[in-house]
Each structure stands twice: as structure tokens, then as C-alpha cells.
């Protein structure tokens, strides 16, 4: 048995149109394919569902802002969810692919909203309806939309852990000193996940025997300098999360995030972990921050993609490898990252 550990990471940037490749032209078939995305409006063209279908994913994961409702009117919220469910491309995907996901503020119902949103319980039920969760599911009685599902692939498995960064999240601190919207809370002040969800997450990681553990967070974990919503606004919980992951010895932990209307890879070495932690941000599906001119992110690997895109993760259990890809319209791979966990 091997007693030493190492990682290999390779970033492949697509720099010119002649070298761009579509996903369908890359013939190697992965053992398991996860596709995910966020920031999807029903009043804008949904251009990427055919490209997502072409990747033949084993699971599609919503990363939040799955619709833009910003309302406590549940009839209006339901109508928007139903319209998305009838969108031709998405409907085809839902008929053939397992669907998981979380919410973010715009489908939660309140922009930058958290624990104070009075309609959160009824909004949660509408979200679960959208996700086709059975009426008798225990998730219907849970406070918050966090959950997990394990996928067995032969003798291997992938555990997908869905977090809720809305239901329990306490007050943010407005930044009145700079042009940024939000600044970090004082260390120890407030919570993002809440006590019960923290205990659940720790148990999920401590008991997982899976080859990979994919954690879905609607907001970015590693990038924390931009002044918008991020884990970095609760610095004590950033540290708590890192400690829990390291102590759990869970294999292949990866974070998937959305929210930002940009896509990027971030990577950080964490004490006690035998591999680097990657935060793969994919946003948005129907609209992007096309006026993006740059922002600091000390953990960024490669360049920011600021056109409409989605993300895919292709798992190779034999090589203990994940190929991370940012994919645009017509299946063009805009950027990719290879990570070996061994």
C-alpha cells in the first residue's frame, strides 16, 4: 500500500479559435460525468442545454439562481419554475439525467437574502417541487435545502454534497468605506451554514468512503477579495470548513460554486490535506459579466471566462483523475484543468 501522497495539476488554456475543441470531439469517455451551472434567466435565450445534453452527463447540478424571481409571491415563483421546467432543452435533459441542486438568493426570493427572509419555508417547498422531490421525502420536513447523494460506479463512488448558503445565513456587513458592496464580518460574528447544517456536513465528510466528495456551494469559497457575497465574509467559517475537510481525511474534495456571472478555477493548499482544494466557479448559463475588466483572486488558476458557460467534471477512477472544463456555446471548451488525486 502506498504511504505517500502527491498531486498533479495541469492547466490547459484555450487561447485562439483554431485550437478550441468541442466536448463532443474529445472521444475519451469518462467513468462518470457531472455537469453543472448557475445564473439562469427564463426571460433570456437558453442557449446551452443542447451543449449540456451533448456531454451526456450522469448528473446535472444546479448551482443556484436557477431562475430570477426575487419575490415572496409564491404563485409568481411557481410560474417561473414551471416555465423553466418546460423549456425544451432543459426538459429533454430532465427526462434523461438525474437532477440535483441548491438555490441562491434570486430563486430563494430575496436579493442577498438570508435567515431574515420571511417566505423561506414556502419558497423551499416550491424549490423542492421544481427539483421533483417526492411529497413523502424527508427533505420536505428539513429546514433548508442541503442534502447529499452518493453515486456508485462499479467498485467506486462519488458523493455529491449540496449546501444551503441561504436559509441560515446571518447578517452581512455593508462596506461603507470603499466601492465594494460587502466587507467581511468581524472574526467569529455570524454564520453561513448554521449549527445543524455544520454538524450534518461534518458527519457527511467524516463518514464518506467515496473516491470523490463534491461539495456544491452557491457562492465562492476561495475567491474572497471582490466585495460580493462569498464565504470570505464569514472568515471564521472559512477556517472551520478547511479544518473539517482536513480532519475528515475525505478523498477528492472539490467545491463547485456559482453566483458571479463569471467562470474560473481557484486552488488552495490547505494544511493537513494531501491534495489541493479546487473551487470551480461556473456562472452564468444565460448571461455573463461581459464588461468584466478584472478583479483580484490570489487563488485563481488561469484566466476568467466571462461569456455564457457551464462546467463539467469528468472522472477517471483508474487514474484517480478529474478533468474540469468550462464549456461555452456550440460545445467549445474555453478552459480546462486536470487534477490527479493519488
Overview features:
Purple Acid Phosphatase, chain A, domain 2; 7-stranded mixed beta sheet; 16 strands; globular; Metallo-depent_PP-like; PhoD-like_MPP
Overview of the structural elements:
By secondary structure, the protein is α/β, with parallel strands linked by helices. The protein has a single domain, classed as Purple Acid Phosphatase, chain A, domain 2, CATH 3.60.21. It has seven helices and 16 strands. It has helices spanning 49-54, 74-85, 88-96, 105-108, 120-130, 195-207, 235-248; strands at residues 7-13, 32-37, 59-62, 98-101, 147-153, 156-162, 173-174, 182-183, 212-216, 253-257, 263-268, 277-281, 300-305, 310-316, 321-327, 333-341. The strands form three sheets. Strands 1-16-15-14-2-3-4 form a seven-stranded mixed sheet, covered by helices on one side. Strands 5-6-9-10-12-11-13 form a seven-stranded mixed sheet, with helices on one face. β2 (32-37), α1 and β3 (59-62) form a beta-alpha-beta unit. α2 packs parallel to α5 (120-130) and α6 packs parallel to α7. The chain is globular. The model is unreliable at 1-10 and 12-19 (pLDDT under 50).
Shape: globular
Architecture, CATH level 2?
4-Layer Sandwich
Strand order of the largest sheet: 1-16-15-14-2-3-4
Query: Uncertain segments of ≥5 residues (pLDDT<50)?
Result: 1-10, 12-19
CATH topology: Purple Acid Phosphatase, chain A, domain 2
Beta strand count = 16
Binned strand content? 25-35%
Instruction: Give the termini distance in whole angstroms.
Output: 12 Å
**How many helical elements?**
7
Q: How would you sum up the major sheet?
A: 7 strands, mixed
- State Rg: 19 Å
- Structural class based on helices, strands and sheet pairing: alpha/beta
Domains, number:
1
| CATH superfamily placement | Alkaline phosphatase D (PhoD)
CATH class: Alpha Beta
Q: What is the N-to-C order of secondary-structure elements (H for helix, E for strand)? A: EEHEHHEHHEEEEHEHEEEEEEE
On the 0-100 scale, what is the average pLDDT? 93
**Helical content, roughly?**
10-25%
Amino acid at each position: 500500500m502506498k504511504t505517500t501522497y502527491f498531486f498533479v495539476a495541469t492547466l490547459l488554456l484555450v487561447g485562439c479559435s483554431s485550437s478550441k475543441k468541442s466536448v463532443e470531439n474529445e472521444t475519451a469517455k469518462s467513468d462518470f460525468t457531472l455537469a453543472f451551472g448557475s445564473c439562469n434567466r427564463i426571460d433570456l435565450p437558453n442557449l446551452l442545454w443542447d451543449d449540456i445534453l451533448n456531454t451526456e452527463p450522469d448528473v446535472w447540478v444546479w448551482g443556484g439562481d436557477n431562475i430570477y424571481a426575487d419575490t415572496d409571491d409564491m404563485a409568481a415563483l411557481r410560474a417561473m419554475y414551471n416555465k423553466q421546467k418546460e423549456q425544451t432543452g432543459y426538459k429533454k435533459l430532465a427526462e434523461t439525467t438525474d437532477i440535483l441542486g441548491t438555490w441562491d438568493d434570486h430563486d430563494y426570493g430575496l436579493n442577498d437574502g438570508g435567515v431574515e427572509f420571511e417566505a423561506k419555508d414556502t419558497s423551499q417547498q416550491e424549490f423542492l417541487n421544481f427539483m421533483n422531490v417526492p411529497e413523502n421525502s424527508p427533505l420536505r420536513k428539513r429546514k433548508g435545502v442541503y442534502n447529499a447523494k452518493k453515486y456508485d460506479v462499479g467498485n467506486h463512488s462519488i458523493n455529491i454534497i449540496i449546501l444551503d448558503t441561504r436559509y441560515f445565513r446571518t447578517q452581512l456587513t455593508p462596506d461603507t468605506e470603499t466601492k465594494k458592496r460587502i466587507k467581511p464580518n468581524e472574526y467569529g460574528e455570524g454564520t453561513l451554514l448554521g449549527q445543524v447544517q455544520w454538524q450534518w456536513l461534518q458527519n457527511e465528510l467524516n463518514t464518506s468512503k467515496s473516491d470523490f466528495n463534491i461539495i456544491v456551494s452557491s457562492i465562492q469559497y476561495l475567491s474572497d477579495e471582490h466585495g460580493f457575497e462569498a464565504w470570505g465574509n464569514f472568515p471564521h467559517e472559512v477556517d472551520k470548513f478547511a479544518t473539517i475537510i482536513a480532519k475528515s481525511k475525505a478523498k477528492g474534495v472539490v467545491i463547485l460554486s456559482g453566483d458571479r456571472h463569471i467562470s474560473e478555477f481557484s486552488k488552495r493548499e490547505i494544511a493537513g490535506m494531501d491534495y489541493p482544494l479546487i473551487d470551480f466557479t461556473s456562472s452564468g448559463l444565460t448571461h455573463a459579466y461581459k464588461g468584466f475588466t478584472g478583479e483580484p483572486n490570489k487563488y485563481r488558476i488561469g484566466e476568467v471566462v466571462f461569456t455564457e458557460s457551464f462546467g463539467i467534471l469528468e472522472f477517471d477512477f483508474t487514474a484517480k483523475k478529474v478533468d474540469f472544463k468550462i464549456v461555452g456555446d456550440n460545445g467549445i471548451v474555453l478552459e480546462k484543468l486536470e487534477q490527479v488525486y493519488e
